[in-house]
Amino acid sequence: LGAFLAGMVVAQSPVSHQAAADALPLRDAFAVIFFVSVGMLFDPKFLVEQPMMVAAALGIILIAKPLAALLIVAVLGHSVRTALTVAIGLAQIGEFSFILSELARQYKLMPDAGHNVLVASAIISITVNPLIFRALPRIEDWLRKQPKLWSLLNGRAERRAAKMNPLTTGPVHTAEEGKRLAIVVGYGPVGRSVHHVLQEAGLSTVVIDMNMDTVSALQAEGQAAIYGDASNQGVLEQAGMKKASHIVVTLPNGSHRSAVVTASRAISETVRIVVRARYLREREELERGGASAAVFEEAEAAVALARLVLADTGVHRQAAEKKLQDIRLHLLMDNFSNIRTQRVGSAMIPWANVHVLTANSSWQSVLSLVAQERFSRWPVVDSATRRPKGYLLTKDLIANTAGNDWASLVRPLKSIHPEDNIDSTLTRMQEEGASIYLVENGGIILGIITMEDILEQVVGRLDDEDAREKPVLLEDAVKRGGVVTSMAASTKEQAIRELVESIPHHSLPPGVDSEKLMALVFAREEEISTDLGNGIAIPHARCPELPAPLVVVGQAREGIVCSTEDNPPVKLFFLLVTPAEQPETQLALLRQTAKLAETEDARASLASADSPASLREIMHRLLHTRDAGA
């Protein structure tokens, strides 16, 4: 005890760190001597001679004491997880018990049998305690499945959290109209950085943290924040989990992360759960719990170190990025060795399920298909033989939306054998810079395999966010943008300015005003004219962080000359502004706009509308008539 007190005194001195460093080499030696001496005090025969006495002592240590601690902590208003942690932490006898028992025996206050019981119980409980700690998440999951018991143990914690949090009768935060809601769990260095980025991106946020000072400070700043355990479904529901699009779990402790993921997925099947994880081996557990994606610290540290070295050695940026991508893939493959020997045939997409483009298809039909299905790559087949001629990248088509020679964009498509393994296929993709192969055997086409198919085998099938999104509708985009009839402009530049300035300011992201948006539109116009040559022009731009796509319809009754070619004056303008992060949205709106005005009668009806309401009514009739006919 004197040595213990001396250590406490030294820890408060200015030289504590150096003293600890000097004593470190002796720590292990003294620990060994201590436990050797304890072992010398223990008589193994006692376990055989008095098993019931040892069992009774272990029952008190491993069951009675933890249960008492669990109830006390729960009654004090702490969460079940905190109560379990304290209870399991007390399910053992510490080293001081040896000293006390030895002194008691010396002074004839404890018989030898009592000392042996104490030593045996201590050794067994210390050995078993780490195993019980590993079972903590499973114990908590079992308690969650017992509603009455869970309510009894966690009720005071929930009431305590409710008193500390505002608006306890309902959600603490509701996302503003047009904004998505993201929940950030944990407000340490990682959580703060993520929270800042989400706010800059225009998302509404709610913070959940177990530090009351942090929560109070955030609330004082006007930030929605909740004090509580995020593995508690009541806390998550109060944060608005049912309406949230994302939850970002930044907690450093692995078991806490898994509990939050499980609770989040139990409330919402559609929310995207993004998790901070330390080791790649945690992937399987997180995936079972329902995580959508994870960032692994050990993998990102390797990539960051490699990036620094490559930058210092002067490697070209594109070459460096390719090497970094290779590092990420190899880290995943090295940690999931069972995937390396898997055959291509088991991971490919069967040819019967592959969507293809026909080489003689028109630009309009290709645009329509690409916008509808929203794939990033499209195999292109010969119209007569149905043999693949290559593949088309959607991003190439987006960059040439005003052109019609899409066949020149087709890239060569190489083939691979179905018996090749995933490891060699991945290596070949990296060497050739390819991302898709045709799988064939003896000239028979079996399917295709892409980089995403391989990664899906490695990281598991995750929910496709696009599959849950509502389809992009031209009418909805026009409601957000507006209609301008009888435009006053007489030139293309004036027309674009008039349309841009009519957009409601609340529809644009923070930091983007009319001037910045006009610069984006004019930059596109300088590349290629968006005058389609049939009295319609579709100026467009992709705006970063735009909450939702918008379209402004402009009507120029006298017509405006918009190109140097021999095109008729433009009487209808469709200004398309779409999120830069969603290029497929622009394609969808382009397709619908082209269908809307594909006939001369339709264009004449739109150009003759005498009011914004009348033009919207004509649009609605044309769009729904064509949909019904289709």
In short:
The chain has 28 helices and 18 strands.
CATH class of the largest domain: Alpha Beta
* Largest sheet geometry: 6 strands, parallel
Please estimate the helix content. 40-55%
Helix count equals: 28
Taken from the alpha-carbon principal axes, the silhouette is elongated
Low-confidence stretches: 458-469
Task: Report strand %.
Answer: 5-15%
- What would you say the CATH architecture of the largest domain is? 3-Layer(aba) Sandwich
State the CATH topology of the largest domain.
Mannitol-specific EII, Chain A
Taking Cα atoms only, what radius of gyration do you get, to the nearest Å?
33 Å
Structural class: alpha/beta
Please report the total strand number as a whole number: 18
Distance between the termini: 87 Å
Please, could you describe this protein's structure?
- The chain has 630 residues and is α/β, with parallel strands linked by helices.
- It folds into six domains: 1-30, no CATH class; 42-152, no CATH class; 170-291, NAD(P)-binding Rossmann-like Domain (Rossmann fold, 3-Layer(aba) Sandwich); 300-335, no CATH class; 344-459, CBS-domain (Roll); 474-624, Mannitol-specific EII, Chain A.
- It has 28 helices and 18 strands.
- It has a six-stranded parallel β-sheet, sandwiched between helices. Strands 14, 15, 16, 17 and 18 form a five-stranded mixed β-sheet that branches.
